[in-house]
Write a structure and sequence with these properties.
heterodimer; A: mainly alpha; 11 helices; globular; B: alpha/beta; six-stranded mixed sheet; four-stranded antiparallel sheet; 9 helices; about 20% strand
Chain lengths: ~325, ~280
């Protein structure tokens, strides 16, 4: 709205048609965002050329752009290698079966290194798993705390102390507990995955617990009275009245939590050596080649984009599921 | 036949300075099919009487007996229409009524019967055209209609209306009052309505219960409204009985129970147990 009037004032014209106005109203925000991005690139590029590190000049936008191309090439090359490996294996097995019909072929998995794209997927998967487990614990817990004043008073000090604990403090504890408890010979999950996932979970539990509890506790008294007049039992009351009434607050908590999950994950992966973006950044930092900085920057940009996408995804989910559309605008 | 007997009830609310006595010695017998209005100044505890009958507010002494059984908890036999409609915002008009119907008649009605009963009640309040609308998509008057439909759908023994039209503009209010009279005429429900509108009380009621000012509010006077039904809003204007009833209520409220409150004492006289308190309890 405002931008449209601004535009009109800047370029006075003879009464534009409705279509023209419409087009302007739509293109202007896009144009402004592009200008913003362009401005940032200019500042970045001029700043980068003035920073010299032990690994050479700080990479500017163009260096990072070429790096994206290289990362994709590496991914394709690695995939081709894997395919070739499986082809060779299949052929070898077929030959042996042809010679000796009793031979049972062994199929081995390809053990090449993960590519950048694989690492992105690992990160997203780890963060989302941690987030989902946290939500499964936090939402019922939050509802219980919101419904019971005594439970709320009992839990509050514990939650308030656990909430601000840094993921970097959790991680060593989680690592020791996982290696102590999870001792199967044939592990379904890598320990590094469990460590990162559980750390993410521990950090994004609290905003969901707190927001759910607040949402439940602040239910309109009249809605509770409706439930009492209808003589809904405890389960019906929770399911039909309490849960839907607190959906907007639950989503607020979930949006906070998904942001935290992603931030925590990158730090956790660096230390836990979970093969995701955090490990990629750490490995490039240790590697210290002339291309390391631009590769780290490429990863940083991807981390930012995915964080943004996760937030938008959550917002879209909220728009889809929450009855209170006004709470799902930005 | 007496349906409901409010037998010398007291209602107290705990405050840091000891209990606040909102109602003292309230007694009232209500016959089946009667339309009773409770009128009084704001804060006198008229809503508290209604909440006590609903079972939402416990009495501290005395008791309420309906059909020979004491009222101890809320139940669908005493359906409440709340002042601010209290529809569940995530459900449509149909869904709000369906919540009540499905809870109460799941065992006795088939799916088709329940569906028909939900639609029937929405038709009764003239809301069948907007059954799939959510509360935020309809006007205040329409929300209140849905609230009434939800209450009626419970097949209550008594309908409790807590200032149902208080938040509506005059025209909408008149319209809904007519609807309510229409429904009352066809279903012959027993109704208790809390109001602060003298005309509304006279137009709708068989008896008007006038409450004294709190604290320790009680029934001051009871006025029989001897007007034939159906009552027509316009012809009532010239009816001497209507004028008499109206004058009686006004005399009670503004002469016998005048609220002596200067303007600046208003802020300090926020006594506990007023409206907000009695609702919250």
């Amino acid at each position: 709205m405002n931008t449209a009037t601004l535009f009109k004032r800047a370029m006075p014209m003879s009464t534009p048609s409705r279509l023209q106005r419409e087009i302007r109203a739509r293109t202007l925000p896009v144009l402004l965002s592009l200008i913003g991005i362009a401005g940032f690139l200019v500042i970045w590029s001029s700043a980068a050329s003035n920073i010299t590190t032990s690994l050479g000049n700080f990479p500017g936008p163009s260096a990072v752009y070429t790096q994206f191309g290289k990362l994709y090439e590496e991914h394709k090359a690695e995939r081709a290698k894997a395919e070739a490996f499986y082809e060779r294996q299949e052929k070898r097995n077929a030959d042996r079966v042809a010679k000796d019909p009793d031979y049972v072929p062994k199929i081995r998995a390809y053990t090449g290194k993960e590519t950048f794209l694989d690492q992105i997927w690992t990160s997203v998967y780890t963060a989302l798993t941690g987030f989902v487990f946290a939500a499964l614990i936090a939402i019922p817990l939050g509802i219980a705390i919101g419904l019971s004043r005594s439970l709320s008073i009992a839990m509050n000090p514990v939650i308030q102390v656990l909430k601000p604990i840094s993921p970097l403090a959790w991680l060593p504890l989680v690592t020791m507990v996982v290696s102590g408890v999870y001792t199967t010979t044939d592990p379904m999950f890598a320990k590094s995955f469990l460590n990162s996932m559980i750390t993410v979970m521990l950090c994004c539990l609290w905003p969901m617990v707190i927001n759910t509890a607040v949402g439940v506790a602040s239910i309109d008294k009249d809605l509770v009275n409706v439930s009492r007049v209808l003589s809904l039992n405890a389960l019906q009351h929770t399911w039909r009245i309490v849960l839907p009434a607190s959906v907007p607050m639950i989503f607020t908590g979930m949006r906070l939590a998904i942001g935290i999950a992603w931030m925590v994950l990158i730090a956790a992966e660096m230390l836990a050596q979970n093969p995701g973006l955090g490990k990629f950044v750490w490995d490039e930092f240790q590697n210290g080649s002339s291309e390391s900085l631009s590769r780290i920057l490429a990863a940083a940009i991807v981390i930012g984009l995915i964080g943004f996408a996760l937030d938008r995804g959550m917002l879209a989910l909220q728009r889809l599921l929450s009855w209170d559309k006004s709470s799902a605008t930005r | 036949m007496t349906l409901l007997d409010i037998d010398h009830i007291d209602v107290e609310f705990p405050t840091p300075n000891g209990p606040f006595v909102a109602l003292k010695n309230v007694r009232l017998k209500i016959d089946e099919g009667e339309f009773i209005s409770i009128i009084g100044h704001s804060g006198c505890g008229k809503s508290t009487v209604l909440n006590a009958v609903a079972g939402l507010t416990p009495t501290s002494s005395g008791g309420i007996v309906m059909r020979g059984k004491q009222v101890i908890e809320p139940g669908p036999d005493r359906a409440v229409v709340f002042q601010n409609h209290s529809l569940l915002p995530w459900l449509t008009a149909y869904g709000n009524v369906a919540l009540a119907v499905k809870k109460l008649f799941r065992k006795t009605m088939s799916k088709a019967e329940m569906h028909e009963w939900i639609e029937h009640n929405l038709r009764l309040v003239h809301m069948d055209h907007a059954m799939d609308k959510r509360p935020h998509e309809i006007s205040g008057g329409m929300k209140q209609r849905v609230g009434i439909a939800r209450a009626l759908s419970m097949k209550p023994d008594i309908l409790l209306l807590d200032e149902p039209f208080g938040a509506l503009d005059a025209l909408t209010r008149a319209h809904l009052q007519d609807s309510l009279m229409e429904i009352k005429a066809s279903l012959n429900n027993t109704v208790i309505m809390v109001t602060h509108d003298v005309d509304e009380a006279v137009l709708l009621s068989d008896r008007i219960v006038m409450m004294t000012n709190g604290p320790e509010a009680t029934v001051g006077e009871i006025l029989e409204v001897d007007l034939p039904r159906p009552r027509d809003r316009l012809s009532m204007v010239d009816d001497p009985e209507y004028a008499r009833c109206r004058a009686e209520v006004l005399r009670f409220l503004y002469d016998k129970q005048r609220k002596v409150e200067s303007l600046d004492s208003n802020k300090n006289s926020n006594k506990p147990g007023g409206r907000a308190k009695s609702r919250a309890a």
